[in-house]
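Example record

One chain of 459 residues, shown exactly as stored in the release files.
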Amino acid sequence: MSKTIIVSNRLPVRIIQEDNSFYYIPSEGGLATGLSSIYKQGDNLWVGWPGESVKKEEDKEQIRADLRKENMTPVFLSKKLIQNFYEGFSNDTIWPVFHYFLQFANFDHKLFDAYVEANKKFCDAVLDVASEDDTIWIHDYQLLLLPQMVRKKLPHVGIGFFQHIPFPSYEVFRMIPWRKKILRGMLGADLVGFHTYDDMRHFLSSVSRLAGIPNSRGRIEAANRIIEVDSFPMGIDYQKYALSAASPKTIDKEIQFRSSLGNQKLIVSIDRLDYSKGLPKRLEAFEQFLIQYPEFQEKVSLIMVVVPSRDNVPQYRELKETVDLLVGRINGRLAKLNWMPIHYFYRSFELESISAFYRMAHVAMVTPMRDGMNLVCKEFIASKLDKTGVLVLSEMAGASKELSDAILINPNNSEQMIEAIHQALTMPEEEQIVHISLMQETLKRYNIHHWVKMFMNRL
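Predicted structure tokens for this chain:
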């Protein structure tokens, strides 16, 4: 009987080992939520790395047996391979190039060799469980070579590939020495999906100009196959965030936070530590806003949550130092005894606390330099039960194509960002309600479950 196999770098659980026992912590990410409707059914499977390097064979067998009960198959990777494949080529080569940060890209042949080796290990794991009449859905930039590897072994199997980060323009993509191998890897799929039309267009341009394969209206004819390429904007689990915003625990958190912060307007900023998120420019714009509009001093504060990420990597460590220094300088320059301009948290929070921040915030600032989609802005909109609030959103985020009722800005334009903050804080409530209501309707309709259904139906 045919089945659907989901393949991603990480499984929707992570392993924790304590006292020779294994514990499995479920992921709360949007992808895990959306795809649970697929991989938990019947004989369907999710193939991926379990988040831990495991050496002993008996431990691997135990983990395989445990995960098989939950419709999952682990791919075991050594620490060295994780370092060179995931931390190396995936995040030191693909990530910076695809986000237009070429100055951070590391073009090292050893890292690419590790990337090939890891993709082969994923291929072996897929081949152990797949047959020709199955459907395989592969996810994201860590596995760009995998579709073609599987296609060579199972020429008639249905393969979908979805990329969750941007795909760069031809001029940028061609900087990668292994560009043709990457394209050929992706072209092993029957359906290639991106968040936006722009990413799809960049991919088709590279296929035409680098691989020499023509395309028309999103259809590529290669090796006697038709490959479809399209955009599928990913949504969120709207109900999850709306219900969380209404929960008693979230409301208790909000009361607790408000009693500490006092009666002032709040801007919320929530991001993972990454140079693509535009954190320094956001802080500098907020500082200049307070200087240009001194009447807002002591009346508005920025709650900035930065979730730790790869802070052992030099670029990320330097970014954190820059953010720390900026926050310290701005607070030192402008703070009063009863008012702090920026409340800065370098850690993650549980969902109820994040929901409380969303509920409290008059404005959300989501201003990445480049982002495939960005779900924080969608979570903020879903959490505004009273329909008041304003979203300031970078036009470089994929979500900007759907959320046109936000205040859209170019994150490189500091004057525009300053004026957007002012516009957001002074927008009449009736206007806020109109914009939030329209965006909520869009997000309800095009949620994570709609995204999964749309892609799978096409595949």
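Notes: The chain is about 45% helix and 20% strand.
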